[in-house]
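I hope you will forgive my troubling you with a question about protein structure. Could you please explain, in whatever detail you think fit, how the structure tokens follow from the sequence? Thank you for your consideration; the sequence and its tokens are set out here.
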Amino acid sequence: MPQAPGPGSAIEPDPPESHTGTVTAPHPEQLLLTPEQAGLLLQVPGSWLRKQAAAGRMSSVLLGRRLLFARTDLDALVDSHRRPATTGPRRPRPGP
């Protein structure tokens, strides 16, 4: 009987989304997303998301050997990287 991967084990990449290798945008009500679909939403490569999940810097879901991301976890990732707006005066640009 196969065992679930433990800490530090490699996570297998998901199979391509279609025969052409293109990733389709997720349906708005889709609960879990592949790394490629999540990457489309966040405008980052799916490989970056895989690395973040493997390093424990991002929540993810392992169903069998398939790595998936919940939309709520993507929202939390964006919130954790949010920078406050600056309210101070802008410095003038140097002229020619």
User: Anything to note?
Assistant: Confidence is low (pLDDT under 50) at residues 1-6, 11-19. Strands lie at 32-33, 61-63, 66-70. The longest strand covers residues 66-70.
